[in-house]
């Protein structure tokens, strides 16, 4: 059962980061591109669980930021595989910030990220079992 923030107990994030002043935009909150970069890294870690090889990002489906992230917040990126095709894998990422000030957890965003396994020439190849 989820808590008040929507968090599920016992979930383990693919990655967790504390964001610092260097990550801020001109309004003093964390730059969205920083969050997107970590989101892509977390999803890539999940995609690689499908088997060895090189996986490249081909799509990041609509990302809507529903809450800001502040300096000092700890941000967790929770992943799960949604679909696995012959050469592609779709990963769901849920992003939460734990507020430095009071420990409250808030949903920041979510996304589906699609990866394709490729060979050294960049051509799609089947995901091995």
Total count of helical runs of at least 4 residues: 1
Going by CATH, what is the homologous superfamily? Hotdog Thioesterase
Give the strand line-up of the largest sheet: 1-3-4-5-2
The assembly state of the depicted protein chains is single chain
Q: What is the residue-mean pLDDT, rounded to a whole number?
A: 92
Radius of gyration: 16 Å
Q: At the first level of CATH, what is the class?
A: Alpha Beta
Low-confidence stretches: none
CATH topology: Thiol Ester Dehydrase, Chain A
State the total count of DSSP E strands: 5
- Give the strand content: 35-45%
CATH architecture: Roll
How many domains is the backbone divided into? 1
Largest sheet: 5 strands, antiparallel
What features would you highlight for this structure?
Thiol Ester Dehydrase, Chain A; single chain; mainly beta
Secondary-structure blueprint:
Elements: E1 15-18, H1 32-47, E2 54-60, E3 74-84, E4 88-98, E5 105-118
């Amino acid at each position: 059962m989820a808590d008040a923030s929507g968090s599920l107990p016992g979930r383990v994030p693919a990655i967790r980061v504390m964001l610092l002043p260097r990550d801020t935009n001109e309004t003093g909150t964390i730059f969205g591109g920083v969050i997107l970069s970590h989101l892509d890294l977390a999803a890539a870690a999940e995609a690689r669980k499908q088997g060895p090889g090189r996986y490249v990002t081909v799509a990041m489906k609509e990302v809507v930021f529903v809450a800001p992230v502040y300096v000092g917040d700890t941000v967790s990126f929770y992943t799960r595989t949604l679909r696995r095709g012959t050469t592609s894998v779709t990963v769901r990422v849920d992003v939460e910030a734990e507020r430095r000030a009071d420990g409250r957890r808030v949903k920041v965003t979510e996304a589906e990220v699609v990866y394709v396994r490729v060979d050294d020439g960049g051509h799609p190849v089947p995901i091995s079992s």
